[in-house]
Amino acid sequence: MLLDKQIQILVFKIDDKGTFDNIGEIDEFDSLIWPSKFDGFSEFELWAPINDENAELLKKGNVIWCRGQKASIVEIVKSSMDNRGTKTLHVKGRTLESLFDRRIVWDTYVGKGNVSTIMYDLVNKNCVNPTNPDRKIPFLTLSEDEKIGDKINFQRTGGTVYEALQDLASSEDIGFEVIFEPRLRKLVFKVLSGVDRTIEQKDEDPIEFSTDLEDIIKSAYYSNEQNFKNVALVAGEDSGTQRKKQIVGDKNSKGFFRRELYVDARDLQTTVTDDKGETVIIPDDEYSQMLDQRGRLKLSDFKKIETFESRIRVFGGVQYELGVDFFEGEKVTVRDRELGVIVSARITEVEEGFGKDYSLILTFGYSMPTLIDRIKQM
Question: What DSSP line would sit under 73-115, residue for residue?
Fold first, then answer.
């Protein structure tokens, strides 16, 4: 039996004047690609016929919601007409996590604690309760901090809040999202850890897609360590022989297995001015931890790449259903005996397609710009 995937597309107007209203529903559309990502924003696309209602609702700045806890901001609207005279709106935009791309880390941020605590603090100081009220993002609130990730010392000067959140999340294999709660008139920032449902653990019911159970229709395995680095020399403030340095990573690796990376971290300083304009002196041990954290962040950009691409059956006696048995951000296992591959990886992105047919694409692991690492459900 084919999974029933009916969809309702609602449009909201949210602005600085206190408006948070449902202004209508898209009754007519041709196709919708609706993504959701574990560690940042993703982009939706909608194709709909041009009529008075769609033209009024699908305006830049309006917010689109269709299912779950994610919503997206309309950012691009294109009108076109084909040779048959059919007029179409092609609308694109990003999920609400893109709001953090609109704010920079003001002055120099200094913080310590669990990674999630620092992520919440960054958002609070730059987006929720900034010293300058003009920087506040309306309706944005914070979820409860569950103290996810290691305790670190962190310093950041410049760049966007979004970039800082992504760096912190990738270093700890965690995620973040903005939950859309229209009934409460809230946008809630939350740091995510994701449940482990792989066959190696025993606390949760395992999820395994397997050729033995005919879940997998087609698959391909890819492994790449061309850009892999495992040791970083991090150089901080000062110069010459006085420059503070830290070695990070697999310090015992040697010979052919040692792959080094140089990290210029001169922006990390022991004397800084925080967001309140106060001078902060960083103790030597905390500064060393900051250098260590910067090295770990940079090494996370040079990890080994291991991906598994499979087309998964979603008709007939389907074993697992997204949103019921497994969710975005969780780790699951995929087994292909024909290729001799068993992979346990995190679902980092979910992309649903709605139109004449329903489609679902799950992205496993961490993708690179030129790499297709998707498990496809059609």
Answer: EEEEEEEEE-TT--EEEEEEEEEGGGGGGG-B--SEEEEEEEH
Q: What is the pLDDT of residues 152-208, one digit of tens each?
A: 989 998 899 999 999 999 888 899 999 999 999 999 999 999 899 998 888 998 988
Cβ pair 150, 169 in contact under 8 A: no
CA distance 332 to 362: 11
The pTM for the full model equals: 0.83
Residue found under tokens 């792989």? 198
Contact 228, 253 (CB under 8 A): no
How many Å apart are CA 156 and CA 175, to the nearest integer? 19
Residue closest to 110 by CA, chosen among 269, 288, 285, 284: 269
DSSP characters over 179-221: EEETTTTEEEEEEE---B-STT-SSS---EEETTTT-EEEEEE
Q: How far apart are CA 33 and CA 7, in angstroms?
A: 12
Q: What is the mean predicted confidence (pLDDT) over 93-116?
A: 94
SS3 145: coil
Q: Three-state DSSP class for 339?
A: coil
The phi-psi region of residue 238 (left if phi > 0; otherwise alpha if psi is between -120 and 50; otherwise beta) is left
Asked if 74 contacts 62 with a C-beta cutoff of 8 angstroms, the reply is yes
Separation between Cα atoms, residue 136 and residue 159, nearest integer Å: 17
Closest C-alpha among 237, 102, 247 to residue 178: 102
Alpha carbons 168 and 269: distance in angstroms, whole number: 19
Read off the tokens for 308.
Answer: 């598994």
Is-contact 60 50, C-beta < 8 A?
no
Give the Cα separation of 118 and 152 in Å (integer): 9
